[in-house]
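The aim of this short unit is practical: by the end, you should be able to scan a pair of folded records and say something sensible about each. We start with the first protein, listed as its amino acid sequence and then its structure tokens.
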Amino acid sequence: MDLPNHHVSPARSAAARPVETFTRLFGSLLLFVYHCFDRVVINGYLSGLSRPGQVVHFFQKVVGEPVIGKEVLSRRTNYQKSVESFASNHGIGLEWAEPKVRKEDYVRPALRRMERAGRHGVYFILKSMEQGQTFRSAVPRFATGDPNYRILARQRSRFTHSYFYIRDVMDLMFECAARWELFNDRRNPIQIVRIKDSTKRRPRPTVLTVTEYDAILALLKEPYRTMVIVAQCLGLRVSEIAALQWDDFDFEKNLLLVQRSFVSGHVDDVKTEYSRDYVPLHESLVEILLAWSKDALTTKVGWVFASALTNKPYHPTEIQNRHIRPAACCLVECPKCGAGVGVWCRQDQLTPNGKRLQVHEERRTLAGQYASIGWHTFRHTYRSWLDETGAPMKVRQELMRHAPIQTTMNVYGQAMASSKREANGKVVGMVLKPVRASA
């Protein structure tokens, strides 16, 4: 590939036309774009044979089987052994997909490791048992002129699918073009393209008031209550909260080192290099954490929030779905049982599984945006409350542990520790005042 000719197309002119510049540089590879995937699925069956006529043509004309009987349809290839050999030869993880866990979240740690190594290719393979369409063969009840004739009928069967997760080379090409300063920002040019009649908008994140946060917290039991307090007092991501260990805390200096994450049962690095940092601990929050340490499960690793069933951190998604969101639905009155705000729904009898139904479906519907509140809501709320303190933008940016706001702001250096403590202390005061008042 030739380097760009800056005499013909200066960088300033190219920056004004990013899509045209990208096309000029990589025009010969644009066909590859349409065949470049981040995931390839190998089905456990021939998905192209969806009709009986296709099956007959394939086996009789292609395979050369005159009689399509049960023995023919039940044949299996050794493609799974090929997948296992490929994974073993290349040192790629090969595991069964866990139920109720997004596949993308499960393999994300492997993707980050490949990104840090600067490599591309297959970084993980997930096996999943899924349903697919197949056929069964039956001999006709009455004789026909063709002794090889069989009746084929559709049926559902279970097959092992293999999901190949791939880090392709297109992002590397774009990074190369960005280093040549042919774009005015680091965005992919395809993000600038607008589709006609497409008006999809990202929903505005929900931000809680102090009263709403207090109402949700009052309905939570331990350890979820303390986890939510940590989320709201520090603005941590839930993966960082789940990965906390007692050695991360310096209670003498009132500091916390955020240095790891816990995603889909795997311990990994934090999201970005800017996320690895010290955050100040307010004295009131230290008291709560020390009180929790007396009741917390003791593990060899020293997890702060460990499950007694696994001795590992809790799965935040289950806590969100079973505890936080039902509590958030209680921010509105229940139209069915009349339960007021901040009160669980009333029931005359137990549900068939013997567990109490915390929230009626009518209340969930009425709750609207509250029914979709999650862990990240507390991070959005922390940012909003931080804005109300009037703290400088640089202080807010470092407390959120985001990437630099803009390159020119780096000349101001890091925010003073006293400024960060002051701003964080104001937010903690908003969080814990209602808690102490209710104690």
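Turning to the second protein, read its sequence before its tokens, just as you did above.
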Amino acid sequence: MICSIDDVIRIVLLVVAPLRSTGLLGDSGRRCLKPVEVIPSGSDLLERMQAGLPLLGDCTHVLVHEASRPFASRDLALRVLQAAYRHGAAFPAVTSPDPIYQVEGRRVVRDFSDSTTVLAQSPQAFSCSLLARASLAAGNGGLAIDDEAQLVAALGHDVIAVAGEPWNIKLLDTDDVAWLETLVDDAKPL
């Protein structure tokens, strides 16, 4: 049983598009308690995986996290990693508070809103050997993928959903950051 996320993380690999790798760490790299390595790679998810996986050495499991989700908690990372140790692959998931529709033109053609539909988050965790097999299969099969859990599921392997966190939101562009800054600025203490 893993008791602390600090007990199992040995290295932090930042696998990023080359244009984003210059000066990426700044002072934050000195504050990290684990060794940090920046690996320039392609902008495609599969290219980033194939650049990072060989650098994991003798690691048995990997925790994959998107920098665009800065609010994931240490507890979430621990729960996801514990599930991956037991099942090989896991991701955090939340139900959507809003209806989810498939639309063609402006017409709703399918409603996905039910208790089995979830929104995937990160960090996601995997057995290194399983993720390597999935990466190789995707490279050979030309799969279009959005995240690692989808890739592993395409292999036919179960990917276990664990309870995500509603505040683990994704910030994709400057509008999202501006919205967050406004929200924080407008917050009034109780």
